[in-house]
Amino acid sequence: MDQKILSLAAEKTADKLQEFLQTLREDDLTNLLQNQAVKGKVAGALLRAIFKGSPCCEEAGALRRRKIYTYCIQLVESGDLQKEIASEIIGLLMLEAHHFPGPLLVELANEFISAVREGSLVNGKSLELLPIILTALATKKENLAYGKGVLSGEECKKQLINILCSGRWDQQYVIQLTSMFKDVPLTAEEVEFVVEKALSMFSKMNLQEIPPLVYQLLVLSSKGSRKSVLEGIIAFFSALDKQHNEEQSGDELLDVVTVPSGELRHVEGTIILHIVFAIKLDYELGRELLKHLKAGQQGDSNNNLSPFSIALLLSVTRIQRFQDQVLDLLKTSVVKSFKDLQLLQGSKFLQNLVPHRSYVSTMILEVVKNSVHSWDHVTQGLVELGFILMDSYGPKKVLDGKTIETSPSLSRMPNQHACKLGANILLETFKIHEMIRQEILEQVLNRVVTRASSPISHFLDLLSNIVMYAPLVLQSCSSKVTEAFDYLSFLPLQTVQRLLKAVQPLLKVSMSMRDSLILVLRKAMFANQLDARKSAVAGFLLLLKNFKVLGSLSSSQCSQSLSFSQVHVDVHSHYNSVANETFCLEIMDSLRRCLSQQADVRLMLYEGFYDVLRRNSQLANSIMQTLLSQLKQFYEPKPDLLPPLKLEACILTQGDKISLQEPLDYLLCCIQHCLAWYKNTVIPLQQGEEEEEEEEAFYQALDDILESITNRMIKSELEDFELDKSADFSQSTSIGIKNNICAFLVMGVCEVLIEYNFSISNFSKNKFEDILSLFMCYKKLSDILNEKAGKAKTKMANKTNDSLLSMKFVSSLLTVLFRDSIQSHQESLSVLRSSSEFMRYAVNIALQKVQQLKETGHVSGPDGQNPDKIFQNLCDITRVLLWRYTSIPTSVEESGKKEKGKSISLLCLEGLQKIFSAVQQFYQPKIQQFLRALDVTDKEGEEREDADVSVTQRTAFQIRQFQRSLLNLLSSQEEDFNSKEALLLVTVLTSLSKLLEPSSPQFVQMLSWTSKICKENSREDALFCKSLMNLLFSLHVLYKSPVILLRDLSQDIHGHLGDIDQDVEVEKTNHFAIVNLRTAAPTICLLVLSQAEKVLEEVDWLITKLKGQVSQETVSEEASSQTTLPNQPVEKAIVMQLGTLLTFFHELVQTALPSGSCVDTLLKDLCKMYTTLTALVRYYLQVCQSSGGIPKNMEKLVKLSGSHLTPVCYSFISYVQVSDSEAVPNRSSRKDF
Asked: How many Cα atoms within 13 Å fall on the side-chain side of residue 604?
């Protein structure tokens, strides 16, 4: 039979074939077809013949064709056929689909859809026909009966796709079904159906099946719905990430973790690659991605951004066209996130309304962490983002050349956080990805070398962290570091010091690097530029400190202990130590040559030798010999010659130019510290060793010289130095300049000798008398300079007038002067205590040291670069100053005071104010330790219980002491009121209040106390009043919104200053006594206006956030119908804030304010008020259509603005114009208004 059909089909006409086929039963045909197909014989030819003999123009032929078609589909789906046969049959069916009439196509399509919905497909091979059938159907122009109605082919296709997408899809055919639609011509609406269906299937599929599905969706997106595809993918993986993180953080859920972390990250990585590839082929998709993520920024950027979307964006940076836009978007998001955080942290009102969220910075660092799972496509973007953040938001240079990086108020600024985030991104990326390490190091070094004139401390910190992490790994990049060394001579000294300190661990592992550095330093030593020579000294000193000689003491006392990763590098320890000795002695030889160079170079050497000695004690003899031979050039050995030092030899005269040649005071200071260290550390360990006697004799000789200088300095009169009152000290003559230099040298020598004699005194009365005599010499000269030099003095004084006393000595001296109660010490101490000038001098030097710390982050003198030692000294100094201030109040001290200048108590308070500020700036993590050190009652036995006492409790204890002092001050009469002290006390209280936890009862107590002080005390001192009110506001905003406080204050101001209409008598409210005629304007008026501005800023921020949510939610109608519910508390709070602010402005606008800053600021803030009201009205107009009208309280607010504010604004403008008519007639701000 099959042969007959085939032979008939070979004829030119199909008539005989049709007749023969009509004689056969359907079953015969299907059986024949099945046999041929299963045996793998000529099934294709047979099928062609059957189709040829079943033309669609005849009804019987069409029906036969339809049944054979359906049977073939079942046959292919059964899985009984060989692959080639099945493919051949499918190919034939595809070609024949277009010949079917419309109704039969609809039937075929419905069969397919039923099979999909019922899940009766076996292998899904036949699904390849469905797009052909749907495409054929869409081309039919005639109307077709469908259901109860009549539809065109295109409408039928739409209806069928709708039914298919609304039904159930078997998980295993989702990819195939989605892929199928790319071959069907679809309208935008149909694409949306398909995309929604495919996206809804994500959650039902295995994780490994999602990447191919995403790929098919991206292919499909070229037909439309790009936005939906991207939004769906991002939303799904963001939710999955969030769920995954919650599962990992909750231990009890660990048993039911849905997806292993590695698998999830690999899948995400694959999907990101698919999307990036799709964007390369279709730029519209990239634009849609950026548009979608930018839209979120208008409201709350954290809603749209997630670790997944950030990783996707970073991968897109590899496409040139989008690189800048993406990095700009991420940069803006980071800063916006930090600004939002800053706004939230400063306002309890916002904290109550806005829930805690994760921040962009956390998400980016999470991306870095996740990138360990072969996300190489993300790393380049991470590096670029890290450098962009560091470049854009690093410390900036200000006018006087100093950087503003150390200012305490700026340490919490968004820009600084952004810069720090950049550094963290680069450091963490460096740790994870080996491939990118060389590039990061290269870029950091390039910036260090090429940006010498701008602040680069943040890059040097990053370099230091990179080197600390892996010195051995970086050996491969050593050529980059040695290239940077070539530029050392041209870099600023501070940069050189920090760069060498950062790469120092590398020098220990790489001999070649060390050698190339030494070559560079030797060249620099003889360079023309002074800075290059100073850099050489700094480099050599650093090498001496870090290459230990065999037999040196352990570095437990080091100021910069090295990390283990560095220490373990020294594998051949003994060899290294021996080699180091030769190496160090060579360097010492080079450094000796510096002693013939300029004063600045010598000074660096003297300041660095002490640290070298402590780190490398075997060099002690070499260093001390060098110092002694240098001192002998300026020392008069004859014991009866006065003065004992040759000051003339220290000064260089070149024609008219006179300059310092030898900083003799620093030389003596260095000798004194080295000697003290040697006596305290080395000698105790050497007792009983005979060979050390010669060495001891040498040190004894140094002691004798210092002793001799002390005795002769005391005997010397100022005339001996030619520095008496009659001497010329003007800066315009060479004699005057020379005398100034000599005076500072003598004062420096006196300070050094004071410290030396104190260190060897052992509380001897004679030594203390010597100290006082030396101080009197210092004081006389200081007084003469202050009196004579006048204005010209500042030029010189700023340069050299840093005290030479070490911070450790200042702390010990203050402790014995004020706190030493040991009986045997009292008689000798009375010598020093009898001089109030000496005690004031001691406190003044402590203040100078703390000020230096605040400005530069370190102090001069030994251990001045060691944060731990400085912190210890700060604790000791603070304890003494606190005791002295609270024990002897200023009022008691000043009543019997005759001297000019500040009292000691006031100086102590000033010191405390500076210290509290410095500790919060540099030692935030050690606050607990600092406060514990201040607790004088602490006993060692109580240490354990003590550890439980919180920072807030300790701070509250300290605050109470200062509160008592302020209350005592305020209880005095107005004329006896010490405004300086009051101002300092409020500054101290402000500083300490920052350490209180805002949710604690102690904080509330502090707020109510401050409020009470403002309500009950009236002082006319504007500065005191301003600082007290600032304290009140800074506390109030962390407790609740200050709008009611502002309203009360505005009523007080109105009461005191009167009304703009002179006929109206204003009732005085007196909520706050601090508001009086003197302080009401401009002081308090400007303060309340700046607070009102902040409240408006917060309200603006909330309105923007609400608008952003609405614009995102209007996309789906269901969401928008529910928008009002979660936002109701926020909307209500906004209306309440603005209502209270309206009454605040209502009062101020009627107040007779003095023209000038108060009026200008009020007008500016009124403009802001109206702008904010307009923004709120626009928001309500946007949402009222879906939420059913504008709320009643909003209507009231609008009415209130119309009745209470707008009319009085016009009266106020008239009042301003009248009061200004005699002054400048028009101001731009008023015109604008």
From this structure: 24
